[in-house]
Amino acid sequence: GGFDVNKAAKFILWKFTQVNRARLNIYPHLTQATDTSNIRLVFAAVKVTILQ
């Protein structure tokens, strides 16, 4: 993939799906760690999903 962020993200998602033998739902979300407000939003959404 080189420096192509989208190709890298697709590859990582593909790797997750390859090891997902239980066929659990995967909710991918691409963000930048330096975007702290978006990181807070992502972690809040993950927390809600886990607690359900």
Key attributes of the depicted protein:
52 residues; 2 helices; 58% helix
What would you note in describing this structure?
The structure is a single chain. The chain has helices at residues 5-18, 36-51. It is mainly alpha-helical. The chain contains two helices and no strands. Helices cover 58% and strands 0% of the residues. The relative contact order is 0.11. The chain has one domain (5-51). It is flat, with a radius of gyration of 13 Å. The mean pLDDT is 88. The chain starts with a helix and ends with a helix. InterPro entries: P-loop_NTPase.
Number of helices: 2
**CA-based shape:** flat
Mean pLDDT: 88
Low-confidence runs of at least 5 consecutive residues: none
Number of strands: 0
Short description, anyone?
This protein has 52 residues and is an all-alpha fold.
Blueprint (SSEs and pairs):
Blueprint: H1 5-18, H2 36-51
